[in-house]
C-alpha cells in the first residue's frame, strides 16, 4: 500500500508545479504590461488625450477595464503646454489711421469753407465796408462844403450889415466944422442909424436864402430820434393810474346787483327757517 502512495505523491507535486509556473509567468507579463502602460500613459502627448481614447487603447493592448481605469486614475493631470497663445495684434496702426483720416477730413473741410468764404462771403463784406467808407467820405465832404458855405454866408451877412451901417461920403472939399457941430452931427447920426436899423432890415443875398432853405429841408428830412422806452413808460403810467383809480374808488353797486343780493338774502333766510322747522318737527314730543 505504501508503494502506490509513493507513486501518487510525485505526480501531484509535478502537477502543482506545472500549474504554478504559468500563473507566475502570467503575473510577470501582466506586471510588465502594466508598467509599460503606466509609462506610456505618463508621456505628455498621451496624457493630454481624451480619457475614452486612452481606455480604448488599453483594451486593445489586452488590459482589463479595471486595470485601465486604475492606470488612468494613477496618471497625473495633464500639464498645460508652455507655449502661450499669441497676443492680440496692436491697435496702434488702426488708431493712427483713424487719426490721419480725421485730420484729412478736417483739413478738407477747412479748405472748402475757406474757399467758400473767400469766393462768396468776403467780396460782399469788402464791398459793404467799401460802400460804408465811401458814404462816410461823401458825408464828411458834404458837411465840409456846408460848413464852408455857412462861413461864406456869415461873412457876406457881416459885410452887408457893415455896408448898411457905414455913413455915405460927401463929394467935394471937407468943410471946417466946429466941436459943437460935430457933437450934434454925431448924435443925429446915431439916432438916424438906430431908426434905419429898426426900419430897414439887413438884406440877405439870394445864395444865402437858398442855403437857408436847403438847411431847413435837410433838417426836416433827418428823422428825429425818439426814446425807445417812451411808449412803454406811458403804458405803464396809464396802467398804474387805472389800478390806483380802481383800488381807491368806492364800490357802487348797480340796482340790478342790489336786487339780486336781496333775493339771495331772502332765499338764504327761508332755507335756514325751513331747516330749523324740520329739526323741531322731527324731535318726539314728551307725554303730558
Automatic annotation (TrEMBL):
Coiled coil: none annotated. The chain crosses the membrane at residues 94-122. Residues 1-25, 146-183 are annotated as: Disordered. InterPro entries: Pex14_N (IPR006785), WH-like_DNA-bd_sf (IPR036388). Residues 30-73 form the Peroxisome membrane anchor protein Pex14p N-terminal domain. Gene3D superfamilies: Winged helix-like DNA-binding domain superfamily/Winged helix DNA-binding domain (1.10.10.10). Keywords: Membrane, Transmembrane, Transmembrane helix. The keyword Metal-binding does not apply. Residues 1-20 have a biased composition (Low complexity). It holds the Pfam family Pex14_N. Residues 157-166 have a biased composition (Polar residues). This is Peroxisome membrane anchor protein Pex14p N-terminal domain-containing protein. It comes from Serendipita vermifera MAFF 305830.
